[in-house]
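Input for the complex:
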Amino acid sequence: MPKLHQKLERNSIGFTLLILCVASIGGLIEIAPLFTIENTIEKVEGMRPYTPLEQAGRDIYVREGCYACHSQMIRTLRSDIERYGHFSLAAESMYDHPFQWGSKRTGPDLARIGGKYSDTWHVAHLKAPRKVVPGSIMPGYGFLAQQDLKIEHLSDRLKALSRTGVPYSQKQIQDAKTDAQNQADSEAENEDELIEKYGEKLNIRDFDGNPDRLTEMDALVAYLQMLGTLVDPKKTLKRKDC
Amino acid sequence: MNEVVEEFFSLLGLIIMLVIGVLILSSTNEMAYVIHGWLLVLGTCWGGLFIMTHLIEKKQSDKSEYNDEIIKWGIWATFLWGIVGFFFGDLLAWQLAYPSLNGDMSWLNFGRIRPVHTTAVMFGFAGNALMATSFYVVQRTSRARLAGDISPWIIFGGYNLFVLLAVSGYPLGITQSREYAEPEWYADILLLFVWVGYFTIYMRTLARRQEPHIYVANWYYLAFIIVIAMLHIVNNLAVPVSLSLPTSYSLFSGVQDAMTQWWYGHNGAGFLLTAGFLGMLYYFLPKSIERPIYSYRMSIVSFWGITFLYMWVGSHHLHYTALPDWVQFLGMTMSIILLVPSWGSVFNGILTLNGAWDKVRTDPAIRFMLVAILFYGLTTFEGSFMAIRSVNSLSHYTDWTVGHVHAGALGWVAFLTFGTMYKLVPWVWKREGMYSLQLEAWHFWLALLGTLIYVGAMWNSGITQSLMWQTYDANGNFLYSFIDTVDAMHPFFVARAIGGLLYLLGAAIGAYNIFMTVRGPLQTEIPLSQRPIFN
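Predicted:
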């Protein structure tokens, strides 16, 4: 064995190739099958791609680095489930590019935060966390309410996502800009059209308490309010058991 | 011939990055993105001018001398990024203790500057330390001058431009938000070119070697270079939205994205922060105490064990999640086995010190190295332990993980770097020794105290918080709301910030000591007859 290795040590290219082979095995065995084994992602009812407004909110979540303190992954542990709700299913993040499961809970998990608090609560809390939750150590995000949401690139964003495999239709991509405006406007008349495109489970309203403007706060709150609301995991699992 | 090929490929890389920079500038009006466009253009123009001057002057390097200039620059870059990284780390620590320090301004908020800290220390500090020492080691162990006269400089410049693009982008909102892979697509392309160049230089230098065998340290450096390339390419596969936006979407989603990311993330720790630094240890420890490595066989077993096993363990970051169980259990099993080759290196290091233990007392640099080995042993044990599912259910999502990372980063990576630098600086600048042994000792004790306070605080806060999350009253209700568990963290957060401050102070003393050493007098000339070849 050491004799053999002494030979190897004399050959830099051979050594390199062997490192490459030995180091590739783990990834090949653990990652590649995740794309081919069918039950890696369970079949569920209700999953849909994000609406343009929700995706814009998600992009803000990504931009601000929220994952550094908030997870979006409820584990199968009792203390997780009782605090945050049903454990997360793989299907629930199937349209997440990138995934935001996180690795640290300096703040609570957000996988099922949608609908737990009112829009007003979210806006007030994001603007001044300690006024709403004394003792909170979260930074304030008041500036989101000051910045207009940039909607001119939303079609490009959806198109890029569709290239990664998110099933957006041509129409959804084309209308991204107006769809975002309509979703944040409770008086818009195109409600039915939005529902037709994105399904029943859709929040259509002004989110940031300032109906005159479409701000980044609108988008982020729209995203937070839909997190974990699409799928009824209990129903899904029961169907599988039958 | 080789020279022409080297110049051609260096220029090609520069031109591609220049084109990307120009395209960015011509298609956007977003401030942060414009800055990055200019950084790319200016950086590549500097590279072009550098090559031109070289071609015009036609300076021939003396092939019988080592190329130590590049190493000197690498040492400065190591300390510069180190201080930046430690400073931001400590700022983040204070923000967690006193949240008003966020200022509620976008560019100063915790979420945006946290990656400034991680990138500056991982890629800036550790990455430059590895690049500089690997260039030193490959020349000495091959007894040959570093290959290429221009490409090492282009590589070094390009690498630091990558780090600059990364850390300047985060506060302005340019990030992929994938841990330790935050830089956007154009920075990733730059790093890819740099890495191919780095690998080429390394292999070409090895090809010139006068020694038939490739020394152990080089195995580790090679593994570091090759595996980082592989991880970087696979994990950064992404679709850019358009040229006019600094945004892209990762090619994979959800569960596959999570697994790929932690395969990358954990092996960033495994190959950048472990394999690369074991390479450093395997050269600088024996060289500094002038004793051979204790066991050649043990180093073979450890090397291949680490290279094989590390790549399996990333899934232990995803216990009890929506990742299929079989991957979780596989990751846990391999994590436990990984302890064997890890401790193989620990014992090999400690036993190498046999016969030179007096130096631990008299030489702070050796003391730094010994403590680094001990922290490596502690961290690898802790890591295997935390990878066990039931332990992980307690440790995950808490400060325990943060403490674990810092035991490795502060105690192992940075201690070894400091110990090595205190030896390397007098060697490359040809000084008698460091400016002040006393300052070295001060640095050592400040760093040790800082690390112990940091890690101790995080163990306590992590376990406390996790237990509070899981505490029920007699009726089966949670005893503590989430915010109660945040309140309980305050004293630990303050302690951690103080520990970090001590560490930063130590590093600043180290930088001063090195600065004074470089300013100090040259070594008295060694007579030619006593000089080994190449020195």
